[in-house]
Structures are given as C-alpha cells and as structure tokens.
Input
Amino acid sequence: MTKGLPPAGDQRRSQLLRGVLDLCLLSLIAERPRYGFEFVAALADSGLDLVSEGSIYPLLARLEREGLISSYRAPSASGGAPRKYYRLTDTGRVELASGRTVWHAFSRRVGRILSATENTGEGTP
Output
C-alpha cells in the first residue's frame, strides 16, 4: 500500500506505476549504481511502496538484455556475499532522457484533463 493514501486506490496506482517503473529504475541508477534491494527501499522512501523485489529483478534483467543497463559484482559493505550492482549504459541515458520527455508531456496532458473536469460535478444526463 502507498503511504498516506487509501487502499482502495492501490490497484490504480499499481497499474500507473507498472507503466513507468522502468523509467523510475533508470532514474535511480542515474543517481548512482545500485543493487536490487536498494531500488525497493528508494521507491518506498518516495512513497511507492507497492513495489516488491519480485517485480524489480525481472525488470532489471529486461533492461540489461535491452542494453540500457549493465551489471557488475562488488563486495558487500556488510562483509557478506558480493552484490550485483547496476549502472546505466550510454543507450540507457538516451532512453531515460527520452522517457522523461514523454512522461512530462503525458502527465501534463492528463493533469490538464483531470484539473479541468475536477469541479464539474457528475455531468448532465
């Protein structure tokens, strides 16, 4: 469930997030290389705690197959097994920039529609 929002909207939020989760991951990787659980924590810290590790790893594998990210292993800071970190490729940077442009244009248009009809009531029969 998303923090501070009623559970009734979780299904809608989940569907909306599914369409942009890849861009969210690319954006988080653009900040710095990350390993799997860090994505879940960063998304939850941003209020998107609907995302589980089980949905992150298949998406990371797809992004890697598409050449948008690459991975490497590095020692764990806690002394455990090495962790698999992900970083953006040049192709991933281009995709992220393009995706941001598309997202901002799309969200502005949707926002205009939702704002314009916000106070109109139920309409006429």
About this structure: DSSP finds four helices and three strands in the chain. The mean pLDDT is 87. Residues 108 and 114 are 10 Å apart (CA to CA).
